[in-house]
Every structure is written in structure tokens, then in C-alpha cells.
Amino acid sequence: MQDTHISLAHGNGGRYMRELIEELFARHLANPHLDVDADAVAIPLPPGEVLVTTDGFTVQPLEFPGGDIGALAVHGTVNDLAVAGARPCYLTLNVFVEEGFEIATLDRIVASLAHAAQEAGVVVAAGDTKVLPRGEGGGLYLATTGVGVRAPGRRLGLREVRAGDRVLVSGPVGDHGVAVMLAREQFGLRGELRSDAASVLPLTETLLGIDGLRFMRDPTRGGLATVANEIVRASGLNLHLNEAQIPVREPVRAVCEMLGYDPLYLACEGRVVAVVAPETAETALAAWRELPSGTEAALIGNLNKAQTRARVILRTPLGGERVLEELEDDPLPRIC
Amino acid sequence: MDSQRFVIGGRVQGVGFRPFVYRLAHRLGLAGSVRNGAGVVEIEAHGDDVALAAFAEALMAEAPAIACPLLLERGTPGPVDDTDGGFRILPSRAGEAPRNHVPPDYFTCPDCLTEFADPGNRRYRYPFINCTQCGPRYTLIRALPYDRAATTMAGFALCPDCRREYEDPLDRRFHAEPVACPTCGPRLEYVVGGERIMGNEAALAAAVGMLHADATVAVKGIGGYHLLCDARSEVAVARLRSRKLRPHKPLAVLFAEDLRDLHRAAALSPAHEAALRAAERPIVLVPLRTGHDLAPSLCPGLDELGVLLPYSPLHHLLATDFGGPLVATSANLSGEPVLTDETEAESRLAGVADAFLHHNRLIERPADDSVLRVVDGRPRPLRLGRGLAPLELDLPQPLAHPLLAVGGHLKNTVALAWENRVVVSPHLGDLDSPRARDLFTRTIDDLQRLYGVRAEAVICDAHPDYASTRWAAAQALPMYRIWHHHAHASAVAGEHPAYGRWLTFAWDGVGLGPDGTLWGGETLYGAPGRWRRVGSLRPFRLPGAGRAGREPWRSAAALCWEVGLPWSFGGEMAAGDVALLRGAWEHDLNCHRSSAAGRVFDAAAALLGLVREASFEGQGPMYLEALAAAQAGTVEAVTLPLAQDDDGLWITDWAPLLPLLDDPARVPADKAACVHESLARAILAQALVLRERQQIDAIALTGGVFQNRLLAERALILLATEGFAAHLGECVPSNDAGLSFGQVIEYAATVSNSP
Ligand SMILES: [Fe+3]
Ligand SMILES: [Mg+2]
Ligand SMILES: [Zn+2]
Ligand SMILES: [Zn+2]
């Protein structure tokens, strides 16, 4: 049992723990900066503004079509740095694992995490593991902190957004939300539904080379609609979205229609929403479409002066207009 | 010489009542005075007995059509100082400011119609003829007091002829604020493509010509634009439907004043005819005759059609010049406020209308057509709009401070209440669209400004996600949430304040209940401020959250699955999709527990194959009712078991309806009628069992489900047979448009809110 599953001993600082670190974590994550014996490490950084971000990962199930919690722990943090205009350099990793967790699964997840880190060009510079007593954790939680560097003087953020700006999305929305939901409920195979979890670095780096880039964000929890509301709240502008232009994969659309979800509120883990000046929006779109992860990128909306209260307004294919609200905790039907 | 004093209440202010009294006194040779008091008109008249008696009678009998005078006092006045100074209109007494009153928009009165038809009159065929007794009000008032300078007529300088009429107390246009004539008033303009035709007759002729060519013409009316087309041409109607992306929702039809065409198309009762001819000129639902000559796609699946008579001089001209019934549907997208602005109309209707008939009188605020349905012998509003709103009512008890109630989310209205008054706004639309939300906030500002009242508290539905609730929560005022069905129940109770203990059936689509489930088939006992749920329908889980409201097949699946029956849609839906939804239903993923009667009707409509996905709200139940109409009264009910649950609630089980709906031996019309009869009897059964335990003074039927005439009338008859006094809403719609009024009543009834 102790050979194949995590025990409390794996977290007590003794031999089991050392073996777990050496044989599992270090095996996958070895790099010159990861010193498993030191209390802290020095990380050399290229010139520029240093950015730091942190995130926790509690996704269920731990492995789902198109990804797992390990890769997600890298992508989530890397992507937060990327959309801020930074080049991610380092991660730290905290692992909270429940007693009784299968070591083989942990190994798979850490391997996936290592692979994702390598692909994104970040090294895991420090880490820690805690074992939670049985029944006190959801199997495995991860937390990562990311450090990156941004070119000095780069103006990027919600404050840069202007009336007339255009809004782009790098690919179909809702894939991650639907894939994880179906995997969690064990609805059986819907092979065509996979999470979009991926590093968005290629997308953000391409856009950083384009004049007129104002703002980028990755639409994770709360989806595209939530990012759209953030833009409106910060800018005081109306954001008109064209529903017909927003890419949604057919199987995602079908599942959402059947189960009554709105894909615009579902999480993505590998997409970017960008606000670009009108003069260069088409250039930005073309540049994204050159990339393997941006072939379905689209111009989906524009920002306009608000006559009354600033809102996100969805123009439906039928010509109607609907206000896209901030997400309610547990949305209840409103039709009487 | 004798003297009499009259105090007249009711609707007598802002409706030309004082000029009417003045002219009447002159005609009868009486001296005296008339003045506005606080909410009343006070008259002192001096003359001989015969003249005074004639005066007293004519005061009521000849009162302006839009006034509703109520004789409060009649007697001998105090000391009289001038009995020979003629008859005068006196200013209001200091400190007795008249009640602010925002009059609705009225039809063209008979006097104006006579002039309108007289080739010798200077207003012959003038599309904007009006007087103190008729014409636009609410839609052109910018501020009170109601005066021409504070209306959208301010920009039209009166010509000498009009000025003379406007300033002469003996003229029936004395202070008719929108008074106008061809010389000085608004005019028509016709636009097709890049071409513009000015001149009233030329523009009108061009529009009528276009209508004869099966085209759709957007016409600016009193409260907004209508889309018009030939109601007898299937080509024209089908084109309008496909362009407006409105495949099934019934379209209203405008008939000429003489009713000749209408009598041919519909079987009118005296109640229908009276409602159609009333000054409000609402849309009234009327039963269609078989073999009518109207386009079949006007109201597919239904046996009733919404019709209206001309409500403005322009509509009289269109109806008579065209020479046949015209579709007259609000120019808007479904659920949005009606369009009022030329530029906006031209851009938003570019793909829908072939031509535009504009005029240059600005519409200050929209008023959609009112819609009435005759149920139990009385016209009941389904929608408050032009002519009916703002709806001013009295409260059963005065309020400690002014309130604003913001209603529901769909078919929204708002209500402003202060002292012992409440004013309900016109229909503002579904609050999904930005236009409706702008109108919502504008109306809230407007009502407070016009009536000179600032709300000190805001009342909303308990549903956190209604746009009205979100708005309320963002205000700096104290906010109170009212449970949806308590508001429905209080709306009826507020119209009948004499009763103490109500048993109220609040049946609708869904609304959030205090237990976190979606109520909609509830039986409430008590009175405003103290409702207690005593009965309900067997709960079920609706799959697919908000989509269940638009897709009746989901309700069908929910009911079948709830009782362990298989459900399939004749194999039309992919098995994998159904399995996915079933899985979600079993995992309680995006499913909500509900007891909504509206969803039971939806389920029945879907199981009978009438409506699987609704293209407009209420489509399933409306089709079910229409199908049942032929068999109504002849059908046996199935007994729906009634039993108490663990909490003591009396629960009606709808389950026996499922085998009925599946019975191959019965025809669909028979099944549809049986569903109605069974549910009407279920209401009676609950009422009887609850009467054994509680004192019940009256029964109310409220909520959108009771827009269903068949169900409402059957329930009323059954209840009356057992000696219950049962009521439906009368002035206030039973659907969610009545929530704002109900919220006021519910809140006002709590002790702390009385002064
Ligand atoms: Fe309701
Ligand atoms: Mg994050
Ligand atoms: Zn008139
Ligand atoms: Zn004139």
C-alpha cells in the first residue's frame, strides 16, 4: 500500500518525503535552479519589469479530455503573466496531496506539469509538498506562483482602452468548461469535446509586436462574458459583441443548448481576449490566424461611448440586443 | 333663485372637466364657479330649480368620455356672495394643490370625428385633429402642469384660428394642449428608398398605395411605430413574419370604425364591442369566425385574434382609405420597447419595412398598445399601454413614505406610490434588452418628476438576477424584496380591499419562492403582508434552467421522468442528446425544482405535439387552450389526487394527466379540454378541503396562467357553485405586469409602513 499510495509519512519530512521528492518531483522537474536542499534560490532575470502572479488549482476531475491539473497549474499561471505582456520565467509549485492518493497518478500529473512547463519555457524553481489526512482534501490541489519579465515602458491594461477599439478572441470559447463538466459528471464519451488548456504565449507574444494593442486577458472562470464585463466596468464604455462572430465549436454549442448553459460564461484555459485599436485590429487578427492556436480567431465586438449606463450588449443573429450581465452565483431561470 | 354645491371625485382633473362644467353652466344659464380642490372638483351653481336639476344630471351623464366623475357631495353651499356674476373657473385654493394627474392618450372623440369627416371644416381629414376630450397626452407631456409649452407641441406656434379656440372658454378646444390644424400643426412625411413625399394627402396616398402592393409600411402613431400590411394578403403577412423573424406570435389587426369587416371576421359579444369602442382603444382578443377572409398566418394555432379600432385620426384615414383590415403590430423586436424615433425606426427597421410614414410631432415616451381579453364577462388587461397607463389607483391605506416598486423581469412595469395613491407605468417590455433597461430607468425618473414625488424606498422581486432587482440593489435607497407569488396575490387583494382572509391561487410560469425552489402553482392563505403557503402542485425538476421556459418539451420530459415514465419525442431528438439531458437531470446539473402550473400546461402542449419549442411566451398553453375550446364543458375530468405532504401542504398531483395525454382512444381536443377541466377541479378540491380548516372570505386567481380564459372561467364557475366569492384581477394584469402594483400592496400592508 505504501509503495503505491501516498501516506501521511510522505509529508512528515523524513525518508518517505525525501524519496518522493527525489524520485518523483525532481525526476520530472530537474533543472539548475531547483535545489531540493536549499531553503531559497536565487533566480537571475533578464532586464525589464518583474511581474509576479499566483494561482491555486482545484479542478475536478484531476484528469480530463485535453488536459489535467498538472498542465493546468502551469498554463493558468503562465497565461496570467503572458496576457499581462510578460515573458514567464519561473514557477514555484505547492502540492497538497491527500493521504491514499495513488502515486502513479501523481507521477503522471507531475510529468504532465513538467512537460507543460518545458513547452512554455519556464522552470520550476522552488516547491513544497504537504500531505492532508484522508478525507480532508480533494485528492490533489496545486498552487503555483509565476515570475516573469515585461519590456520596460509597455503600456498595456484596461486603462488604455478607448472608444472605437475592437475586441478579438483567439479561438472558440467554452471548450474547457464543457469538457471538464462532462468529465466530472461522468457522462461517458463525447470524444469531440476537449479542453482548450494550453499556453497562450505564442498568441500574446505575437500581439505584443503590434501597435495599438491595449489590453489582453485570458477568459478563465466566468468566461468571455466576465472579461467583457471587466472591460466595461473599467472603461465606462459600451461593449457591443456580435454573437454570430463569436466562435463556439459545434459540439460545445450542442451540449450547452441541451443542458441550458451559455458558452459565453464557460471557462477557457487557452484563449485570449484582446482589445486593439481600430487601425490595427485587422492586422492583429491576421497575425493570430497565422498561428496554430489562432486559426479560429475572430473580431467579435467593439467599444463605444455609452449614452446611458455602460453595458455589455450582445447583438443576436436575429437582430435583437441582450444585456450580458455579470455572472450570478447560481443563475435561476427568469422566465415567468 | 336656488344654490347648490357639488363635490366631484373620481377622474376629473386633467380631463377637461372644468371647461365642461363651465360650458354646461353657460348653456343652462347658471351662475357660480368651479375650481380644483385636493383630488376633487368643487362646484357652486346658482339658478332656478329646473336648471339646477338639469345641471346635476348632465354633470354625470354628459361628462367627457375620458372623465370618470363620482358625486361625493351635493348640498346647500355656505354664504353665497355673488350669484349674478356669471360662471367662473376659479384658481385652486392655496394649500389645496390639485392632485397631479398624468392623463393617458385617448382616441379621437365623436365631435372631432364629425369635423374630420366634414369637407367644409378646416380640419377635414387632418391626421392630428384633437380636442380637450381626445388625442395624445402621456406620450407628449414633458412636465406638469400639463400645458402646451411643456409638451412636444411646444414647437408648433398656434395659428390665429387655433389660438382663438384655445383661449375661448366656451370652445371645446379651450386649453386643448395639443390643438393643431393643417396650417400650424404636425404633418405627415412618407419615405421610400431615397424618396420623400411631403404633404398629408400625398404622403397618405403613397402609403396606402404601398399597402395595396403587399408591402410593409412603418407608421408613426401616438406612442410609437406600427408595422402595417394588408391583413387579408397571405403574401404580405408571410413576408412581414419572415422579415420580423416572428414565425407564430399572433399579429394584431386594425379594423375600420364601422365594424363591417370586423363583424364578418369575428363573433363579437357586447362586451367585446364595448371594450373595442372605449376611449382607450385597446387591442381586444376576439373569437374568429370560421371561414373568415383574413390571412391564415395571422394567428396560427389560435381561435382568437387581437383587433383594434382606429385610435388616432391618422389610423382612421389609413383604415378607411385602405378599405380593409390592416395588420398593425408594434414596430420592435420581440419583447423590446416600441420604436418612437424616426432615425432609429429607419435604421432598425431597414430590413423589415418597405416604406415609412412619419410625422413631425415628437413622441416624448413610448406607449405600446394596451391588450385586453374578455374573461368572465369583463375585459381584463393583459398589457397596460396607450390609453390605460399610467394607471392611477387608490391604496387601501396611506403610506408612511413614497415607494418605488420595480416589478419583475419580463413584461415589466414599475409603480410609484405615495400617500394613498399608486401609479402603475405602461408596459416597458422584457428587461433583457438595453433599450428596455433605458426605458425602465427613464420611466422611473419620469414618473417621479411628473408626479413630484421622490421614492424613499425601493421594492423589488426576491429573484436576485432580475434586471429590476439588480437595479434596485444598486440604488442608495432602502430596498425590500417581495416574494414573487406574494406580489401576485397582493395584486388581486389590492383591488378588493374589503376582503379579510383570502385563499389565493397564484399560478404562473416560475418565480423564486422562499424555499429556494421555483414556485408557480401555489395556494396562499392570508392577506397582504401575511401570506402563508397552504397548497401547491407536485414538484418536479426542470432540466436546462432558463431554457425550460422557452422549450415546452423540457417540461414534458420533466413530468415523465418525475413519475418514472420513459420520454422520447417520437424519436425526433437524437438519443444521445436525450441521454445527456437525462444524465444531467439525474445529477441535478442545471436543473431546478419547480411546482409551476405554467410548466404543466407547457408539458401538456408538448405531449400533444402542439408546441415543442415556443417562438413566443405562452405559446404552448395558448395552443392548448385554443385546441380545448371546442370541447370545453362537455368533457369529464380526471381526478388529480390531493394529499397533505410532510409539511402539511395540500399537494395536487398532476400525474394522472400523463396517461390521459398518452391515451390513443381520445382525440387531442378532448385531451386538451380534459387537462383544463381537471386542473379547474383541482382548484376547487383544494378550496373545499382548505375551507374546512380556515375561514375564507374570498378566493383569488392570479398569475399569468389565469390569462387562460377557459381555465379561469371553469374555475370561477365551479367555485361559485360551492358558494365561494372568487375574483380575477380587474384593472391590473394578472401576469407579471401586475407585480409592481402587488409589491406596493404587499409592502404597504406591513404595519411599520403606515403613518
Ligand atoms: Fe409570475
Ligand atoms: Mg489565473
Ligand atoms: Zn376630440
Ligand atoms: Zn392652427
What does this structure look like?
The complex is a heterodimer of chains A (336) and B (755). In chain A, strand 2 and strand 3 form a beta hairpin. Chain A has two domains: 146 residues, PurM-like, N-terminal domain (60s Ribosomal Protein L30, Chain: A); 166 residues, Phosphoribosyl-aminoimidazole Synthetase, Chain A, domain 2. Chain A has a seven-stranded mixed β-sheet. A four-stranded mixed β-sheet of chain A has the order 1-6-4-5, covered by helices on one side. Chain A has a two-stranded antiparallel sheet with strand order 2-3. Chain A is of the alpha+beta class. Chain A is 29% helix and 24% strand. Chain B folds into four domains: 88 residues, Alpha-Beta Plaits; 172 residues, DHBP synthase (Alpha-Beta Complex); 93 residues, Nucleotidyltransferase, domain 5; 252 residues, Nucleotidyltransferase, domain 5 (2-Layer Sandwich), CATH 3.30.420. In chain B, helix 16 packs across helix 17. Chain B is globular. The chains are: A alpha+beta (336), B alpha/beta (755). The interface between A and B is large, with 30 and 53 residues. The site of one zinc ion has 7 residues of chain B, from helix 3. One zinc ion binds next to helix 4 of chain B.
Which helices and strands occur, and which strands form pairs?
The complex is a heterodimer of chains A (336) and B (755).
Chain A: H1 15-29, E1 49-57, E2 63-64, E3 67-68, H2 69-83, E4 86-98, H3 103-120, E5 123-132, E6 140-150, E7 166-169, H4 175-184, H5 201-208, E8 213-217, H6 223-235, E9 237-242, H7 250-259, E10 273-276, H8 281-289, E11 298-305, E12 312-315, E13 321-323
Parallel strand pairs in A: 4-5, 9-12
Antiparallel strand pairs in A: 1-6, 2-3, 4-6, 7-10, 7-11, 8-10, 9-11, 12-13
Chain B: E1 2-11, H1 17-28, E2 31-36, E3 41-47, H2 49-61, E4 68-75, E5 87-89, H3 110-116, H4 160-167, E6 188-192, E7 195-198, H5 200-212, E8 217-220, E9 225-230, H6 234-244, E10 253-254, H7 260-265, H8 270-277, E11 283-287, E12 304-308, H9 313-322, E13 326-330, H10 342-348, E14 355-359, E15 371-375, E16 378-383, E17 391-394, E18 403-405, E19 415-418, E20 421-424, H11 434-451, E21 457-461, H12 467-473, E22 479-482, H13 484-495, E23 502-512, E24 518-527, E25 530-537, E26 540-543, H14 552-562, H15 575-586, E27 591-594, H16 597-607, H17 619-629, E28 642-644, E29 650-652, H18 657-661, H19 668-691, E30 698-702, H20 709-721, E31 726-727, H21 739-748
Parallel strand pairs in B: 2-5, 8-14, 10-12, 11-15, 18-21, 21-22, 23-30, 25-29, 30-31
Antiparallel strand pairs in B: 1-3, 1-4, 2-3, 6-7, 6-14, 8-9, 9-13, 10-13, 11-12, 15-16, 17-20, 18-19, 19-20, 23-24, 24-25, 26-27, 28-29
Helix pairs in contact in B: 1-2, 5-9, 13-21, 14-16, 16-17, 17-19, 19-20
Bound molecules: fe (iii) ion, magnesium ion and zinc ion (2 copies).
